[in-house]
C-alpha cells in the first residue's frame, strides 16, 4: 500500500488557497458588496444554475426588487415573472415567503446568525453559512458542490456523497481549514477553486497548487471522486398543449390557467394541457375527453401542429406537443369555467414554463 501524501497544515493550506484566489477570482457583481440581501439573492439564484446564466438573472432581480421590502410586498406572479426561464421555481416562491418572514420577524433585516438564517424558507446549511460568513463575518464553513468535490478529492474520500456521514466529514475538514479572521474570503476562495480548478470533468491537476497533498491525485483516482449512489432513472411525461386563438372584433384572445398543484412549475401559467402516455395527433386531441369538456364538439376551425419540444428537469423529461387552434368567435362559451381568457397582447406579462415561452418565440401569432 502506498503511503498517504504529505498533508499540509492549516497555515500552508490557506497560503496556497489565497495565492491561487488572488490570481483567479472572477469579478462577479455580488462580490462587490457585503449587503446580506444581495448575497442571499445571489446564493439562491446560483443553486442549480451556472454563473454564466445566473448573473443576468441576479442583475434583473435586484433591479426589480432592490431590497427586502420591495420583494416582500410584490405579488407572487410578479416574482415568478422575473424568475421566468431560470427553472426550479420553488426557489422564487421561497424567496418571496422568506422576505415576508424577514419583514415580520426580523424588522426587515436579513438575519446575521446561522440558526435564524436556517429557519428562512429555502435556506439550507450551505446558503446560511455563505450569508453569515460573507455578509457578517461569522466563522461558518460553507460547503457547496464545488467545495464538496474539492475536499473529497483532497482527502481521498471515496464514500458516496449522498450520505450524512460523508457530508459531515467534509464539513469537518472544511471547518478545520476555516480562516476565522476572514471566513467570507475563505469560503469564496474554496468555492472558486472548485469551480475553476478542481472541475467535475477535466480537473486541472497538473498545475494545481494542492496536487502534492491531494490523495485522489496521488492515488490516480481523481475521476472516481466524488462518488454517488445510483440514481433513479428519469420519468418521461408527455404534455399536449392547446394554444387556442379566438377573435372578438380586432382583439384576439387565448386561454390559460395557473398550475396550483404540488407538481413541477407550481405557480406558473400554462396553456390548456392534456397529459397523456404519449404525444397525440390532431384527431386524438380533438376527440379527447378533456378537449370535448373544454371546447365541445364544434369544429375547432384551423388546427396546426408545431414541432415537438423537450425539456430535461432534475428527475423528469418533459416531451411537449403544441396544437394551435383557431376557434370561431361565438364558440365554446363554457371554456371560461376552466380557464382564464386573456388578450394575446398580455401574454408577455405572464410567467410560463420555459418550454411554453420557447414555443411562443418560435411561432408567429
Fraction of residues in β-strands: 5-15%
Q: Helix segment count?
A: 15
- The H/E string reads HHHHHHHHHHHHEEEEHHEEEEH
- Unreliable parts: none
Structural class, from helix and strand content? alpha+beta
What is the end-to-end distance?
69 Å
Shape: elongated
Estimate percent helicity.
40-55%
- Give the strand tally: 8
Mean pLDDT: 91
The largest sheet, given as strand count, sense and whether it forms a barrel, is:
8 strands, mixed
What gyration radius follows from the Cα positions, in whole Å? 25 Å
Question: Characteristics of this structure?
Answer:
365 residues; 15 helices; 8 strands; alpha+beta
Description of the molecule:
With 365 residues, the chain is of the alpha+beta class. Helix content is 41%, strand content 14%. It is built from 15 helices and 8 strands. Strands 1, 2, 3, 4, 5, 6, 7 and 8 form an 8-stranded mixed sheet that branches.
Amino acid at each position: 500500500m502506498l503511503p498517504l501524501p504529505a498533508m499540509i497544515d492549516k497555515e500552508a493550506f490557506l497560503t496556497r488557497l489565497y495565492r491561487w484566489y488572488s490570481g483567479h477570482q472572477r469579478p462577479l457583481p455580488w462580490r462587490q458588496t457585503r449587503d446580506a440581501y444581495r448575497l442571499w439573492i445571489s446564493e439562491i439564484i446560483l443553486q442549480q444554475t451556472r454563473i454564466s446564466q445566473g448573473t443576468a438573472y441576479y442583475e434583473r432581480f435586484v433591479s426589480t426588487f432592490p431590497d427586502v421590502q420591495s420583494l416582500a410586498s410584490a405579488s407572487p406572479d410578479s416574482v415568478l415573472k422575473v424568475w421566468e426561464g431560470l427553472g426550479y421555481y420553488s426557489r422564487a416562491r421561497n424567496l418571496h415567503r422568506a422576505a415576508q418572514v424577514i419583514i415580520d420577524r426580523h424588522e426587515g433585516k436579513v438575519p446575521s446568525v446561522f440558526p435564524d438564517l436556517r429557519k428562512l424558507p429555502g435556506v439550507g446549511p450551505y446558503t446560511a453559512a455563505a450569508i453569515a460568513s460573507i455578509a457578517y463575518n461569522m466563522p461558518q464553513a460553507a460547503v457547496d458542490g464545488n467545495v464538496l468535490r474539492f475536499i473529497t478529492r483532497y482527502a481521498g474520500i471515496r464514500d458516496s456523497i449522498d450520505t450524512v456521514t460523508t457530508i459531515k466529514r467534509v464539513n469537518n475538514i472544511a471547518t478545520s481549514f476555516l480562516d476565522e479572521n476572514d471566513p467570507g474570503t475563505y469560503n469564496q476562495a474554496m468555492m472558486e477553486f472548485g469551480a475553476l480548478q478542481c472541475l467535475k470533468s477535466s480537473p486541472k491537476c497538473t498545475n494545481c497548487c494542492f496536487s502534492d497533498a491531494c490523495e485522489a491525485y496521488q492515488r490516480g483516482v481523481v475521476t472516481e471522486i466524488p462518488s454517488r449512489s445510483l440514481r433513479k432513472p428519469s420519468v418521461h411525461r408527455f404534455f399536449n398543449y392547446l394554444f387556442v386563438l379566438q377573435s372578438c372584433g380586432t382583439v384576439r384572445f387565448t386561454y390559460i390557467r395557473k398550475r396550483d398543484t404540488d407538481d413541477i412549475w407550481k405557480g406558473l401559467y400554462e396553456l390548456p394541457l392534456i397529459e397523456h402516455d404519449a404525444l397525440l395527433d390532431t384527431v386524438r386531441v380533438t376527440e379527447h375527453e378533456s378537449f370535448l369538456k373544454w371546447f365541445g364538439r364544434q369544429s375547432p376551425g384551423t388546427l396546426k401542429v408545431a414541432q415537438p419540444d423537450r425539456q430535461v428537469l432534475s428527475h423528469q423529461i418533459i416531451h411537449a406537443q403544441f396544437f394551435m387552434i383557431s376557434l370561431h368567435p361565438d364558440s365554446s362559451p363554457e371554456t371560461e369555467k376552466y380557464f382564464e381568457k386573456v388578450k394575446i397582447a398580455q401574454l408577455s406579462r405572464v410567467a410560463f414554463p420555459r418550454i411554453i415561452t420557447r414555443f411562443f418565440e418560435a411561432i408567429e401569432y
